[in-house]
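Re: weekly structure request thread

Next one in the queue (309 aa):
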Amino acid sequence: MSQRTIDWVDGAVELIDQTQLPDRLVVLRITTVDDLIDAIRRLAVRGAPALGVAGALGVVLAGGDAEAVARLRAARPTAVNLAWGIDRVLAHPGDPLEAALRIRDEDVAACHAMGARGADLIEGDALRIMTICNTGGLACVERGTALGVVQTLHERGRLAEVLALETRPLLQGARLTAWELDRMGAPYRLVVDSAGPYLLTTGVDAVLVGADRIAANGDTANKIGTYALALGARRAGVPFVVVAPESTIDPATPSGDHIAIEDRDAEEVLTLRGVRLAPPGAKALNPAFDVTPHDLISAIVTESRVIRP
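Done, posted below.
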């Protein structure tokens, strides 16, 4: 990403409205906590690291309003980084903006480190990688987590192809990951989510995914559909690698059983970009995340270490 997903510019938060991609590149200028909460809830800004920066900058916008900060913290329950960013700024004794900008800059450095560490971990050349959701620069500040590893492999000349799951119901893979892969010039093909486990049997070298929360025992919460990929990868003997910053590890959450899974509006399942898919009166379940048990994870790559659950 040559353009930052989220930043502080002239006294306001500026962020790419991810709901408009890939059709239009729209930058929102946000000056109130309520507008930031709205952007978070409707996924104009999303991705665990980006939410950490959003939480940090939101404290600056709140200007000491504790009630506004509490509402910001509750905007999305599963991703730990939102609360982590808020708490880091609140604990800083000096200028809140200084603390928030440090979090932003640390994310940029961490993504470069994760990309290198993950690329070093995966062996071979002409690699075929599978991924789900969006874990690129749009989910962070400039460069991604799992997709950051893909970008590093591409830059090193070791990437043959990315199989990107479209990621229903909001198509973060088809809309966002494909957009980022296009911009980096990486070869890719989109596949429907349900094809992922089968395609793992046809010659995939690794599955790379992100995480929104990593429990103390190594269980990880990520976009719905990740658990099915982990099961398929175990059956096919394909390494399943989680790439996430240290800030996504939550020692206060003992296991995946203690991770709150966000339930989103059923209309996201019943409609697609404003067009109704189901008959009138149809109901839907819409869990935004699932939990992958640690025993299905080959490795967790952070900016500072490789963890083998």
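The chain has ten helices and 16 strands. The first strand starts at residue 6 and ends at 9.
Next request, please.
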